[in-house]
Amino acid sequence: MSIPLLCIALLAILLISLAFTVSMARGKSKMMYGYKTDPEDRLYKSVRAHGNATEYVPIIAILIYILGTMPISMWIMWCMIIVTLSRYLAAAGLLLPKSLAKPNLLRLVGTLGTYLAALGLCIALFLKAVSL
């Protein structure tokens, strides 16, 4: 099993699933463009979850892909796994609460995990680049 490819596949599934969630929420609300900025509105939460994932998933997938083409340490592999799980937690933290008006633990853990593990991937790639 290739952990890097599995992580990239899971990130792509997340992004496409969140896009589908936006489409479903648009159909249900009959709002084909825009959205109400109500932190309790399902469409608003779906758009934010998809937008948030769209901000992070592409660069994370690129980092994982590039690092996956090289021999990597176990800590880099763990960064790949943690950042992937963190993106799912962040999405859940945006979709599941009744309102986005208050912070929640899922979103906090997902965000912190994303920042730390993605930074780890950046450092790993930097170290690989300067050692070539």
UniProtKB/TrEMBL annotation:
It comes from the Bacteria. The chain crosses the membrane at residues 108-127. It is found in: Membrane. Coiled coil: none annotated. Keywords: Membrane, Transmembrane, Transmembrane helix. This is MAPEG family protein. The lineage of its organism: Bacteria, Pseudomonadati, Pseudomonadota, Gammaproteobacteria, Cellvibrionales.
